[in-house]
Design goal:
single chain; 284 residues; alpha+beta; Double-stranded beta-helix; 8-stranded mixed beta sheet; 3-stranded antiparallel beta sheet; 18 strands; 22% helix
Amino acid sequence: MTTETALHIRELKPGFGVEILDVDLASADQATLDAVIEAFHRWGTILLRQQQLPPPALVDFVSSFGEPEDHTQKQFTLPGYPKIFILSNKLVDGRPIGAHNDGVGWHTDYSYKSEPVMCTMLYAVEVPGEGSDTLLADMCAAYRALPQERRAQLDGLTVHHSYQHFMSTREYGRTELSQELKDANPDVFHPLIRTHPADGRKALWASTGTIKGVVGMPNPQGLDLIEELVAFGTQEEFVYRHKWQVGDLLMWDNRCTLHTGTLFDDSRYTRLMHRLWVRGDKPF
């Protein structure tokens, strides 16, 4: 019997992700937290609704999964809490308090780093009346759905990731990086098929935005391959669509998923989310 059997859960999609019911993280004991962590590593995504977590509690909770990661862009971190990044379209004194339309497009966080973040946590403070859904794709299921011959062709391929390329070509928030940011974020190379360290399951670890190409494959052939694989892995059968409510805490495993934000009517609604990351390790 594992500790997870103590949790009341329901799957978000068959075989992928769970909503954990009847757990108040603000008062949960260590055994319950251990069970939540185990569920995360097994299912790839966890959802807990109706949470009331001030910033210190968010940092404490995410720290139970590992060391919180810093953010590349510092201007939208929560004052006094540098591990919490603000996603918002709100203005204070005419200035944005957070990143708006950040994360639109299928990707995995920090893929431009040599050690991408293990997981991402979003906590909903204010949500629009409609829109702003977050979509998560189960890339382990996508890998399993590939024909065996196709898996053999992809295994061993290496992908070129570049933060500079991403920031100069992205649809929203495009910017020219300072030399300091360029120096701090050199290009990196990661496997196209990633192995999960918890149990050895494999994931189709394609992405968009940061990828410049596939090693040993000329463009546009390399980028066409990535586009094909992302389209395959984000088919409806592999995707969970999350519709936000205030107090939702959604956490996903970047080692085996892709995700994307979606747009909303920012002339009618405001959105305020807190994002936290946990440090990861080198993909293999």
